[in-house]
Write a structure and sequence with these properties.
Keywords: Membrane, Transmembrane, Transmembrane helix. The protein has about 110 residues and is mostly helical. Helices cover about 80% and strands about 0% of the residues. Helix 1 packs parallel to helix 3 and helix 1 packs antiparallel against helix 4.
Length: about 110
């Protein structure tokens, strides 16, 4: 699968789950994370588009709501696991410079929630 396509769907899902966590917990850090994930999604839209973007977004929004019902401690563990996977993906598949470097820094910042 094309790395830009995979990143596009990954960021669509990340935006969905971040929105769910923000809706549930109303934290400013979670709001900032949601806004950043949405901007990452828009960045990858410049390279690829897919009919799976919105289904991915809404599916992970619902999954995020369900995860958040288990409490903030579990939600935080999920955030750390997802952001670690995203960081590893970017390091493995992209040269870390320019916009990708900023996205990578944002992903690292999200783990501080």
């Amino acid at each position: 699968m094309d790395k830009y396509y995979f990143a596009l769907l990954g960021e669509a899902g990340a935006a969905g789950i971040a929105k769910a966590f923000y809706v549930r917990f109303k934290s400013e850090k979670l709001k900032e994370s949601y806004i950043q994930e949405e901007s990452h999604w828009k960045y990858f839209k410049k390279y690829r588009r897919s009919i799976l973007e919105m289904p991915t977004y809404y599916t992970l929004f619902l999954v995020g709501i369900i995860i958040s019902l288990f409490g903030f401690k579990i939600t935080r563990k999920v955030i750390i696991r997802l952001e670690t996977a995203a960081i590893n993906f970017y390091i493995k598949n992209f040269s870390i410079q320019g916009d990708i470097e900023k996205i990578l820094e944002d992903e690292k910042h999200h783990m501080e929630i």
